[in-house]
Amino acid sequence: MSNKEVKAALKSAREAIRNKEYKEALKHCKAVLKQEKNNYNAWVFIGLAAAELEQPDQAKGAYKKAAELEPNQLLAWQGLANLYEKSNQTDVKGDLADVYQKLLELYESGDKQKWFDVCNKLVELYHQEKKYLEVAETWQKLIQMKQEEGAEKPELHRLWKRMIQLLADSAQNQDNKTAQLLLNAFEEALNSADTVPSEDHQNLYKDFIQCLSKFPHETAKLEKACDDMMALYPTVSYPLEVLCLHFVQSGTLSEEALHCFSKLLEMDSSSGPGIIGFGIKCLQEKKYEEAIKSLTEGLQKVSQCPGAWHYLAEAQMKIHKHRDAVLSCNEALKNLGNPEGPSLQQKDRILQLKAEALIKIADADAAEEAINALEQIVGGSSDPVVLAFRGRAYLNKGLVDQASKISQELLLSHPDLAEAHALEGFIHYSQKKYEQAERSFQNAIERRAETAEYHQYLGLTYWFMSDETKKDKGKTLTHFLKAAKLDSYLGRVFCYLGNYYRDIAGDKSRARGCYRKAFELDGTDEESGTAAVDLSVELGDMDTALSILNEVTEKANAGTAKWAWLHRGLYYLRTGQPSQAVADLQAALRADPKDSNCWESLGEAYLGRGSYATALKSFKKASELNPELVYSIYRAAAVEQILGKYENAIATYQQILEKTEEYVPALKG
């Protein structure tokens, strides 16, 4: 076949394709290839015809052959692009991206519009594949081309915004290079905005700040962006809120941070981050109740702030609300997720605080949870303070041998660590080895004198060591007072101070003050509450006694606070108010239905208000629960006598006299 015949065959192939006679076209092309096996156009036409005949593999092979023969000719690449675009197979997307790259190269020096069209397609393809770095680099190249073409500012602004949209959903899991390209797009979009200030520009700034807040290493840029936005939009609280949360989360409590908190609350007194900031300021100033109130309120508005939950847990620990602190630590850990970098260190601090709270709860279940928390701390097995906590958790679980092993190892490896000596002290104290405990707590105090708990336990050691040390003002009292001074929220210390002033010093007034303080700090401390009421009664101050009892009974749930209901019921009984006495004694019995003395008192109250049948039942219940309660049996007989049940009454009196011959009321009855 001559050159002329080759041209004629190719012309026929072209005509056949135009007329959709694809098989005919293939015949012509194959004839050409017999003569010229590297004929570019023949291979391209075969690709085109095979594609139309739905023979994609043959089409692909033909186009690829053509592209190999003439890599800088467009037709084969365009054919491949069309073929891949129509394919439903996912594995061709990588090949399609390569084809688009080649087309961009070929169009770059020629048809700019086609270059932009292909570039858009390539970016869309990368976006579908979540290849965000390639999206960013390709789109940046497109903008660069537009700039070289002399594009106007509004068009460039639109393109930068489009780049932000393309990368927005990837902000959380980007590599550093993609992140930098996204942040650069924000800066370019902000700088190319037409009208400033404007609502669009303001929203773009918000998005930029929100994006920056997701990158822990971009704190300088975040602070600058917030400052710049505040300068442009002084009445908008958003940048200040982000900045405040950033300070909260990073644990930065500089003058600048405190100024931001105050400024935000001035702008918006109901702002969650502002209220959280105020709570942190209160914590710094040791106003713990106020700190807890503000942090709790702020977290109702901004719950996903692990830093704020951590501060709340710290404040709760300061006032010994240990169970609340554990819940706050759990919230902090939940909101941290799976951290890395600085957040990982924060997670370790929260885990340690949680373990400390659980150890202070001091039961076996809490100890087990504390051990689990300590095991999650990175490098915890080599941290002496973490090991000391682990020792205390073992002790709370009753695993004294494990606790002792940790204590001995710590004393050898870290002889100057206060926690090591304290752990030894707690072990000796739990075993009632008070002389050894004394030495250990003294050693701990020598190394860290400002820890209230060490003074508390040294005071307790002296209290239980002997009558002599208990009465020694320079030992027991001195250390309890020192503990109370260092930590005015240690309820148990005030309870023992009350015990000292009542039982040793004989100072009822001061003792009552200590018991009241202990009870105010811990409303579940029945010992202190009862002692405060009893001493108030002894001191003739019924108003104080009643105010304590009223406060407890108002807050009490059904079946709780028996001691308070019983005390108040007995008071009403003594003062001739039987109906109120009945109500309170019934409430006490709901908490403890097997208290025979309470049933006896209830019988007296019913009797006082003339309810003889129920009085009789109450006295009988009391004597059933405790057959030794002769008075209840006698009162039951007396009520039967009043009700005219003489035979029953006589039988009951005789029953008493069989046990107690000289019981005068029964003889009289």
UniProtKB/TrEMBL annotation:
Which Pfam families does the annotation name? TPR_16
Reply yes or no: does the keyword Nucleus apply. Answer: no
Note whether Phosphoprotein occurs among the keywords.
Answer: no
Q: Point out the signal peptide segment.
A: none
GO CC term, one of those recorded: Ski complex
Keywords, A to Z, come to: Coiled coil, Repeat, TPR repeat
Q: A GO BP term, please? A: RNA catabolic process
Q: What sections of the sequence does the record tag as coiled-coil?
A: 3-39
Whereabouts are the TPR repeats?
40-73, 418-451, 562-595, 596-629
Protein name (database record) = TTC37 protein
